[in-house]
Design a protein that fits this description.
Blueprint lengths: L1 H19 L73 E6 L7 H10 L10 E3 L10 E3 L2 H4 L13 H4 L1 E6 L10 H17 L7 E3 L15 H21 L1
Parallel strand pairs: 1-4, 1-5, 2-4
Antiparallel strand pairs: 2-3
């Protein structure tokens, strides 16, 4: 009897404890795997890395040949050998520029005219510069008076022979009342005048046209005297630079 009573008391005690919160029931959360289903996984084997191809050998390009530099053109002489006078030289003081007032001509043609038409002993000019009509364009022809250093017959002013006796006569073929001299004529004239003025110490003021001292339009209203003087100065300056450099 006492054993049953004891068991009943124990049951009551346990119930009382449960009601009083003395024993808390542990909630166990069951483990569940992820929802990823097995058939969604695709196996991909690791592909082997392809071997690195050998670097392509680049042959060096041959060096380009050095540029071909043409030799500098030979320096143009400051004067032609034919301009050198023979024998004793005159004391020239003037350079007188003329035009032929004709479309064509040459030293030989003017020499024949001066001999046969004017009854002179020979060509009156010391130099003639062609224009391509009778003599090559820019060609400087030396008259027979120059090698002999003979006075000229090209610029008599009244009874004054100053410009004949002491003046170098240069005639350019052409009529410069109608047009200018050709570029080649001007280039040749500048070289000739620069050479003569330097050799005989002739001042720029003594480089003149026929009409500046005579009653004539020679060497024509289109003749560029200022251009001639400028070219002579340029040639002289270039010659001085060459001498300084040497």
């Amino acid at each position: 009897m006492s054993g049953r009573r004891t068991l009943a008391l124990m049951v009551l005690a346990v119930a009382a404890l449960a009601l009083a919160g003395g024993c808390t029931k542990q909630t166990v959360v069951p483990y569940e795997p992820t929802s990823l289903e097995r058939d969604t996984f695709v196996y991909k084997p690791i592909e082997p890395t392809p071997p690195v191809a050998a670097a392509r050998r680049v042959e060096p390009r041959p060096a380009p040949p050095p540029p071909v530099i043409p030799p500098p053109p030979p320096c143009e002489p400051d004067h032609d050998a034919a301009w050198e006078p023979n024998g004793v030289e005159r004391s020239w003081r003037w350079i007188v520029i003329h035009h032929s007032a004709s479309d064509t001509g040459s030293a030989a043609a003017f020499d024949a005219w001066h001999r046969n038409g004017r009854h002179w002993d020979e060509l009156g000019y010391h130099f003639v510069i062609g224009n391509g009509g009778g003599a090559s364009d820019g060609l400087v022809e030396v008259g027979p008076r120059w090698p002999k250093q003979k006075w000229g017959a090209h610029c008599r002013v009244g009874d004054c022979e100053e410009y004949n006796y002491f003046g170098i006569g240069i005639c350019l073929v052409g009529n410069f009342d109608k047009c200018r001299p050709s570029e080649r004529q001007m280039a040749s004239l500048a070289r000739l005048v620069e050479y003569l003025s330097d050799r005989y110490h002739i001042d720029e003021a003594h480089i003149i046209g026929h009409g500046q001292v005579g009653d004539t339009r020679c060497p024509g209203r289109c003749f560029p005297m200022k251009d001639l003087v400028a070219r002579v100065r340029q040639l002289r300056a270039a010659g001085q630079d060459v001498v300084t450099a040497e």
